User: Fold this.
Amino acid sequence: MSESILNITPFIPSDKALHDSVVADKAVELMTSSARLAGQLSPITLTTLERYMRVINSYYSNLIEGNPTKPYEIRAAHRGEYSHDPAKRDLQSESLGHIAVQAWLREQNPDLDILFSPDFIQEIHQQFYQHIPESLWLIKNEQGEVVDKVVPGEWRERTVKVGRHIPPQAKDIASLMSRFCEVYHPNKFKGDRKLIAIMSAHHRFAWIHPFIDGNGRVGRLLSDAALRAVGLESYGSWCLSRGLARSSKHYQTLLAGADNVQQGVYDGRGPLTEKGVLVFCEYMMDTAIDQVDYTSGLLNLVYLRKRIDAYVQARNDFRVRGMADKLKPVASLILHTAFIQGEIERSHALELCAMPERSARRLISQLKSDGLLSETSSKSPLRWEIPEHAEPWYFPELAPQV
Assistant:
């Protein structure tokens, strides 16, 4: 007997269930908070943050799947500095692969029609696996024996078990994913229901488990792209995976809870529990709001200026690892101005130095060589950057430093 898409109803919580809960209100709060964050950032600063946050997103999304490679180890791999341990080296490569897919998705900038198509979801999977070592394509059982191998971009071809859940048979995956894309296309929903549908789809994708491996990462990448596509413009300066990883056990518990069958006549009208998907959606909304609020606090102009000041002071106290040269205190004003504007004209930067031109040019040159500012040409404006050595002061507690 073939599996029907109706077996994952309710697709989203019913109007009655949503009316009696706070999920719809939280969806509105998320949209408002995200828009407010986008409004406080220049487009250039947002682009810089998005590029930086790909490492953070990679770290947390992979951490959920058991890859503990730290951001500093990911950046080391990016410089070609890999661990001598083959297993750790492969995990570093896996992290870089996740970053590559994020960059690819941003470049593709898929609209909702493209994003919610089986072919594109398969392409996300293919992009991820073609960037990681083939040793990570192998599927092993609990005894460590190889039982299967991933075929990048292809639906799974055998039955699997995920915890207590047995996902649909392989022969039904293609038709289920086609209907999944139709059912969960956000344009079929209005207002706050768009976000609720994306959060519900995050679970239903995991329930179908369309690939033999990589479903968690692909599902989160799909949700990331969908949140951006429905208009959360600040997405990328904050990442959902950080919040999911910080409550990973609860995330997994609620995913499993939403797998349950209907719990009596007051639990919706589909074969799956309505309460389970409602609780999961509320958790996802709370997690997203928490991450937006956290990032908004980090990027508050007053507080960020204090942290930039603290970084400059740390440089002058020789507390910044790998940096032996002091910085003039006025450097913090230049860096903060560049953050606010995204970039700063050279003439403006020299003016802010309020010192003889030769000394001012020497300071600007130092900020560039230290990676605190960047340029696209010798005459271009100077862009605000986030070098690794400034990270602990700019963004404390965003991710582990060691």
Observations:
- The longest strand covers residues 146-149.
- The CA atoms of residues 100 and 131 lie 7 Å apart.
- The chain has two domains: 11-298, 301-394.
